[in-house]
Amino acid sequence: MIIKDSFSKFTNISKFSGCIAFFTNEKLEITHLKKYLNFSDHKNLTVLLKNKSKNKKKGLLSFDLNPNQKIILIPLKKNQKSNETEKLGAKLTDFLKSEGAEVTHIVSDTISVNLKPDAIYEFLHGMRLKSYSFDRYKSKKESNSLKVNIISSKKFNKKIYDKFKAIELGVNYTKDLVSEPGNILHPDEYAKRLTQLKKIGLKVSVYNEKQLKKMGCNALVGVGQGSIRGSYLVTLEWRGKKSNSKPLAFVGKGVCFDTGGISLKPARFMEDMTYDMAGSAVVVGLMKNLALRKSKVNAVGVVGLVENMPGGNAQRPGDIVKSYSGKTIEVLNTDAEGRLVLADAITFTEKKFKPSLIVDLATLTGAIVVALGSEYAGLFSNNDNLSKQIHEAGEKVEEKAWRLPLHSNYDKLMNSKNADMQNINYVGGAGSTTAAQFLQRFILNKTPWAHLDIAGMAFSKYAGALNSSGATGYGVRLLNKFIEDNYE
Ligand code: BES
Ligand code: MN
Ligand code: ZN
Questions:
Q1: To pair with 478 at 20 to 30 A between CA atoms, which of 15, 68, 206, 395?
Q2: Domain containing 99: what range?
Q3: In total, how many domains does the chain have?
Q4: For residue 319, what are the contacts with CB-CB under 8 A and spacing of at least 6?
């Protein structure tokens, strides 16, 4: 559903047709609506409400006032959290979608029964996040458009509105990238799309395969060598601070499709591996958001873009590659490719940008889905403070992350007889930790670092509170909050 919003002053409710939404307190009291409804309508509504509230329905209530007007009551808790207000907005979107509504008026002033007036922007944010759908490849578009008219006596707050809009555009861009199938969004196309972000003020640099080989990024290049597409490292820089202070760095796994390579995956659910570039898409969506809202922070996004295919030139199990860091890796399983891409991307980021911290995101292991399902991302970090900041931001926006251990004792599981390390653990167990422990070896200068394993979070067959089914955009709002709360 495409939401087109407008803001206007209150005139007279009888002029509005379609859905008209009011906020109330939790008890669904409506005395404060006398101001907006004529005497008989208010009385009718009181009667309808009496009958309906007997079956104690939670959430929104709707009433047909007459054939042209449907009243929607939205109960608010006292000083409820932003997150709950957003979720109520999402509920309204769902309701309007199921009604096939084309127009809705929201009487914004009534939000003051229990919240500050600006909470209306949070409500609208939730409405719009929930309205996303990906129907680019459907001849018949499902997404009708919905006119949302916010009726308010307050001055339109452009600053808050624009901030939320930037987050939405970032999240939706991430969702678009994740939703694209592997035949469309291969590394060549992905790199090309990223160069277009120059338009919004990001500095974009693309390193192609030839350059990467020359630089010694053989771990990354090795993953892509079985594909007819190129392999890339793309950096996106945002300078929002006047000072030349060290940037925050965000690194993402961008495996446009993961067949497993020569260590081929089974056919069932292999199609899911089209979202194996979600980590990179989060980094891109986050950077887009920072640029759009002109965030007062210095940040850099780095993504490694490859396609993991079993071609004639594909990497073999047992191959040994020398990474950008100089460390050698024995590739025992070509399906443990994400860590190979990230290894080079992380060392490159640390060396080139000297960031104050690095957060990487990747759909890295199936094991994290076993451990945490689709409720929490796995969080691994060499720094307690950084870990705490990410955890707290996640709780606030309900993109949750749970810390799991790193420990040098796990290192021996990844040591190789023939090289400095191997890319899988043959003993078994702790699949997500050993992967994280592998990544940690590519932080060379003790930079505070956190790794988010989002394999269980990036995509969902079911709708969530703020998402329709499909790509979730998990991570963009989390990292935006992390930056907003700690670095702006
Ligand atoms: N992209 C997968 C991980 C994954 C699994 C993401 C399920 C999303 C959903 C990753 O490249 C992979 O194949 N990991 C292997 C590692 C193993 C070979 C050590 C895995 O988890 O099985
Ligand atoms: Mn894999
Ligand atoms: Zn993968």
A1: 206
A2: 2-156
A3: 2
A4: 222, 330, 331
